[in-house]
Each structure stands twice: as structure tokens, then as C-alpha cells.
Amino acid sequence: MGDTGTVAAWLADHDGVIGRTEAFALGMSRHQIDGRVSRGEWVVMARGVYRCVTHPFSEAALVRGAVLAHGGVADRSTAAWWHGLVTELAAPLTISAPHATTGERWSHTGVDLMRRSFLPADVADCRGLAVTGKPLTVLLAAAGMEYGARLIDRTLQTRAVVLQELRDALDRNSGRWGLAAARHWLAIASGDTESYAERLFAKLLRSEGITGWVEQLPIAGWRIDFAWPELRLAVEIDGWAYHSSLDSFRSDRQKDNALQAAGWARLHFTLHDLEEDPIGCAEKVAAMLSAQAIQRDC
User: Fold this and answer.
1) Considering 94, 158, 274, 278, which has the largest number of Cβ atoms within 10 A of its Cβ?
2) Separate counts of helices (H) and strands (E) for the chain
3) What percent of the chain has pLDDT over 90?
4) How far is Cα 29 from Cα 3, in angstroms, rounded to an integer?
């Protein structure tokens, strides 16, 4: 016979969700489980998965129920949310399971179910739920996002993961489909992202026919990444945020203030800006050059 206090403690720690297997492990009998369902104390989320009605039907409860229903592991965007790497739970839920399950198992929300398994090193028990570990979660989630490089950059900046952990996870999953973009981003992250961004910007200027610029122009003790001296336009290019330090942030602000005092117009682009919207960046430069030319000729 299951101890009521033990079961209650389990439900409190698991967002009010429990599977039949877990209930049996806590000492409950089939009769006790069915009794709670018939009395309306528990509701059936899926076959063999229950939710206690005294607990709110939260997003966490939804994720737990879906993972239990499919006998799988939360991965990609759902794992990123579970780990706290993103703030919003995206739809559909993303789950991987080694075996096929039928659609009848789950009807609460959409699920993107992939038939696959993971190495033990890439699976974690996070607050009682099977999820991909943070390094692989970052790689898989980033690969499925429009701006996935920003996720990798942010998690490195906050040290939610470190670069070597990402490299190791990528090596363990080198043959897995969909990680080519992540491999490209890690190669960039391993180097001087600011220099890479400056080369990318110079290439963009040439391809768009924008001329008249000078690289690393010295002004008042500072060097401007890209400058149009006659029009007094300065463009500063930043690499990934995780490479930045408090000292470099302060230095950039001091440079910006000095340029403003000297009457220079300024634009700032990051590597993410250049990769995600290069034409938009070029258009901003062209518009600012036009505005500066008009101001000069007035």
C-alpha cells in the first residue's frame, strides 16, 4: 500500500504529474490508482500518465506529461526551456523516443516526436525529468532556430555551457542530422569573432558597391573599425558577446562618447546582425552616408 505522504511529496516535486510506473514504485496498487481516478482526484493525461487536480495544470506539468506519455526525452526547444536557456515554451513540444508511439497517446498539445536515442553522456535528469544535457540541448535547439547563433553566444556568455562542452557534445553526435549549422557556429566561436565580423562587413561593403571607407582609422587616440572620414561616419563591428569583457565594454562606451563629442555619426553592427540581415546592414550604412552627405553640403 502506497504511503499517502510519500505520494504527495512526489507530486509536489513533479508538478502534480505521475506515471503508473512511478506510482507502483512508490508502493501504490492498481486499485489505489484507479480509485483516485474514479474519485476525480487524478485525471488521465495519457495512458498510464496522471495529473493530480490539486496542482495547477502548468506548462511544466504539460511537458512532464508529454515526455512520460511518449516514454522519451525532452530535447531541442523544449529542453532549452526546461533548462532555463529560453524564457518561452515553444510549440510544438520537442521530444525524442527510441520507439514509435501512436498519436492516441497524447492529445493535449502538438508534439514533434523524433525516433532516436541518445548516449548516456547526453541525457540528464533535470528536476526529475529526462532531458538532453545542456551542451547537446544548446546545439540541437540552435540548429532549429532562425537565430541559433545568438542562443549559443548567450549561453557561452552566461557560462551556462563552456565551449569545450559544446565541442565534446558535437563530437559525440557528429553523425546526427541537422548539426551542420552548429558546427559552423562553433568554428567561428573558437576564433576571433570580431576579426571575422570585420572581414564579413568589408566583403558586404564591396558586394554592395559601397566605397570610400577606411579601416582602423585613428581618431583622438582611438581606432575606428570602418570610417568614412569626409562624411564623418564611423561604423563599429562587434563579435560575439561572450568574447567581451567589462573593460572592453567600458572602452567601447568611451570611444563612442569621444566620437560623439567630435561630431561623428555612428553605427554599430554585431556579427549576428551581419549574418542574419546583411542587406539590412548595408542599407543602414547607405542611408547614413546619404544623410551625412546632405548635412555636409548644407
Assistant:
1) 94
2) 13, 12
3) 80
4) 11
Kindly state the average pLDDT of the residues 191-206. Answer: 96
Please compute the mean of the pLDDT values over residues 134-160 and round it to a whole number: 94
User: Whole-model pTM?
Assistant: 0.87
Query: Which cell numbers hold the place of 128?
Result: 526529475
Highest mean pLDDT among 86-90, 100-104, 293-297: 86-90
233-238/265-270 β-pairing = parallel
CA distance 130 to 92: 18
Distance between CA atoms of 80 and 274, rounded to whole angstroms? Answer: 25
- Residue pLDDT, tens place only, 246-264: 556 567 778 888 888 888 9
**Cβ neighbour number for residue 192 with a 10 Å cutoff:** 12
Which residue, among 206, 204, 68, 86, has the nearest Cα to 134 in the 3D structure? 86
- Encode pLDDT of 96-130 as tens digits: 998 766 545 687 889 999 999 999 999 999 999 99
Amino acid of residue 269: F
Q: Where are the domains of the chain?
A: 1-57, 70-189, 193-297
Torsion over CA: 69, 72, 76, 81 (sign): positive
Please report, for residues 4, 86, 146, 148, 280, the alpha-carbon distance to residue 81 in angstroms, rounded to integers and kept in the order given: 31, 5, 16, 14, 30
Superfamily of domain 193-297: VSR Endonuclease (3.40.960.10)
